[in-house]
Amino acid sequence: MSAKSGIGKAMAHHGELLQGVFDHIDGYLRRGLVSLPYPALTSLATFTPNARAEITVSPTGREKARRAADLTIASFAQVRTGGHIQLVSDIPIGRGMGSSTADVLASIQAVLDYLRVFPTAEHIMRIAVDAETACDSTLFKQQAVLFAQRDGIVLEVFRKPLPALNILSVDTTPESTVSTVEFEPARYCPAEIEMFRPLRSLLRKAIDSGDVRSLGRVATASAVINERFLPKPGLRELQAIASRYDAAGLQVAHSGTMAGLIFDPEDDRAPENMHLARKAIDALGLVSAPLKLERA
Amino acid sequence: MFERVRPRNLEDFEEPRMVPLGGHLFGACFFLMKLLPARFMLKRAVERGQLAPGGTICESSSGTFALALAMLSVLNGYRLLIVGDWALDRNLRRRLLQLGAELDIVEEPHPIGGFQLARLERLQEHLRRRPGSYWPAQYYNEDNPISYSKVAACFIDAVGPIDCLVGTVGSGGSMCGTARYLRMLFPDLTVIGVDTHNSVLFGQPNAPRKVSGLGGGIVPANVDHTQFDEIHWLPASEIMASAHDLHGRHGLFMGPTSGAAFRVARWWSDSNPGKTVVAIFPDEGHRYADTVYDEAWLESSIPGWNGTRMEEPTAVSSPTVDMTSWAKYPWRRRNLSDVLGDLPPRI
Predict the structure, then answer these.
(1) Choosing a second label site near B332 at 20 to 30 A (CA), which of A109, A191, A268, B167?
(2) What residues in A contact B142, CB-CB < 8 Å?
């Protein structure tokens, strides 16, 4: 084993396309989500081993990343080692964009890179859940997955990755942040639990056929069902703008402040509509930014 | 928190088989649709502590809901009392008894609410006499429409985005529940309810009806009128002829309510080519072998049943007009009171 350092990189997400509770094959209902990966923003971790007994992290206070590195050493290192995790991230914090999960995943992968071991994605996700309580599905790049963010298990693998999407990104409350860990998980009533069945069915169809319109319908319905658990100021207005300018739908960060109007890159009128929608969002006093999310 | 309380039992029988019927029309063929709401209502009752192990279930039904409850009661060790009327035919009666259900048949209709209300009044007596017994109350129980999430999911799995849903209305559970779930995803969905002459559900004056399984003499609370874009009323002859068409042309041996849904869905689908239409076919035809599918019985009960079918419905100006043939009315997702003006008694 060399004494060289290891590096790891993980991406942000722009909230979720769907979040709720879903049947698992074991007969139990599980909380699950489908993240909307946002590869342009990343967290980069460098792990440098040293002779100390414990793992340290900088910037200081990124305790979950430190714990994740520590758990990875405990799981995979033949000889216990100390070390330091250096994180460099450009992901905004408290917006529901997965800054903390990205730090955790980058740290795990930095340690794995140093150790030269290559476990499965699900194994990595389980360490991440142990370190962080909940996690997202950005690690799965080949195919989109419905991921149980609190159990660290994949509920369903879709046949394809998410299609390319154009997103008009809006921070609904720039002045406040949401702590994912302190945020109480939604307690869905029985009627709401049932609503997720048809949503999951249409999501599967939409991903398998690359149908952005249907994907948008699922995201909008998920945003509406979850609105009572973490209300987004201006969600109704954004929904009205989305339908006025023929967006495919509206997605939100279910544990954050971000929202996104979804447009189909294949739609010839989308650039014009996005331009008009931006003006309408400006008029609400909110700031928006266009993002191009390529097919993974 | 989310633990399932029971194994799958008859759950595999709950989902419809989706059959293409030409154009973009699909029939959702159920073995016995009511198994789904019955199972869901009993599960929720157990979770709420309303139904104890070995407990007694009392319900008013002369049709397939009684049969579904009886099947589930056998499997789960419940006792079942069914209050029924004439519509509970000999074969169904025999099956219910073989499934261990106790039957109470109401002989006299209520002067205003007909047999349905007479049955409900008799049921109240039984519930008073048996404290602790559970009444699923499919007309009022919100879990009835809520249970149809699986059906909406099944439709999407089979055909993807849906433009139009057609089905008969009885308790309101299947049509209003399925429509609500589908509209979360397809807000422009056209929902067409199929009723029969002399049924008060959508405003016809109450009078004896010749077909059971759709319509009724009282308006169940589970009928959410605001779900419907259009209402059709079919006479018994069209319903019977259509059930035979479904059998003769598509090989599907289904009950009369399926025939009614097929009649309207075929017409709407042909008038709106390219639109994806799903029609709900709630049960199979075996129960009706001696009636709907017995031509001698048909000739004597519904003379001229196999005469000329109407090409299309007649548009009516109000749901209350006297109807003799296939009629349609643009309901436009309104409340019953908004359509009729004065609210008729809702029981």
Answers:
(1) A191
(2) 191
The string of DSSP letters for A23-67 reads: E-TTS-EEEEEEEEEEEEEEEEEEEEEESSSSEEEESTT-HHHHH
* Tally of domains in chain B: 2
pLDDT digits (tens, 9 = 90+) for B40-59: 999 999 999 999 999 999 99
pTM to 2 decimals? Answer: 0.92
Buried b (16+ CB within 10 A) or exposed e, A14-45: bbbbbbbbbbbeeeebbbbbbbbbbeebbbbb
- The yes/no answer to whether this complex scores an ipTM above 0.90 is yes
B347 pLDDT tier (thresholds 50, 70, 90): very low
Residues of B with CB under 8 A from a CB of A: 2-4, 7, 44, 142-143, 146-147, 149-150, 152-154, 156-157, 160-161, 181-182, 184-186
The contact set of A with B (CB < 8 A) is 21, 27-30, 190-191, 193-195, 197-202, 204-205, 209, 211, 214, 217-218, 221, 224-225
d(CA B339, CA B295): 39
User: Domain A6-156: which topology?
Assistant: Ribosomal Protein S5; domain 2 (3.30.230)
- Domain shared by B195 and B264, yes or no: yes
Question: What is the CA angle A88-A89-A94, rounded to 5?
Answer: 140
Same domain, B97 and B198: no
pLDDT above 90: residue A133: no
Domain with CATH 3.30.230.10 in chain A: 6-156
Provide, rounded to the nearest whole percent, the portion of chain B with pLDDT above 70: 96
**Domain match, B248 and B328 both:** yes
Predicted confidence (pLDDT) per residue in B268-324, tens digit? 999 999 999 999 999 999 999 999 999 999 999 998 898 888 889 999 999 999 999
**Are both B159 and B298 inside the same structural domain?**
yes
Q: How many residues are recorded in chain B?
A: 347
- CA B346 to CA B343: how far, in whole Å? 8
Q: What is the DSSP string of A270-296?
A: HHHHHHHHHHHHHHTT--EEEEEE---
CATH hierarchy code of domain A160-293? 3.30.70.890
Q: Which two tokens stand for residue A46?
A: 């460098």
Tell me the pLDDT tens digit for each residue of B101-125: 999 999 998 888 788 889 999 999 9
Q: What three-state secondary structure class fits B203?
A: coil
